[in-house]
């Protein structure tokens, strides 16, 4: 079962290093990448996350935090 849903606002964890991440580290989950889900480990998934300016990056759920504020 995916941890995040399309439309969730997420923050990329500070420990994640990727030059393309904007400094605000906030993005919107666009979709769960079902082809990336390993059925033997159904608790883990990859997501496409959109940032301002139209940039979309792929992240494993361990690098994401749900923003609930």
What does this structure look like?
This protein has 69 residues and is an all-beta fold. It has one domain. The protein has no helices and five strands. It has strands at 9-12, 26-32, 46-50, 56-60, 64-66. It has a five-stranded antiparallel β-sheet with strand order 4-3-2-1-5, with no helix packed on it. A hairpin with a 5-residue loop joins strand 3 (46-50) and strand 4 (56-60). It starts with 8 loop residues before the first strand and ends with a strand. The model has no long low-confidence stretch (mean pLDDT 87).
Main β-sheet, in a few words?
5 strands, antiparallel
The H/E string reads EEEEE
Q: Structural class given helices, strands, pairing?
A: mainly beta
Radius of gyration: 12 Å
Mean of the pLDDT scores? 87
Helix percent band: under 10%
Number of DSSP strand runs: 5
Number of domains: 1
Number of helices: 0
Cα-to-Cα separation, first versus last residue? 24 Å
The global form is: globular
Strand order of the largest sheet: 4-3-2-1-5
Low-confidence sequence ranges: none
The proportion of residues in beta strands is: 25-35%
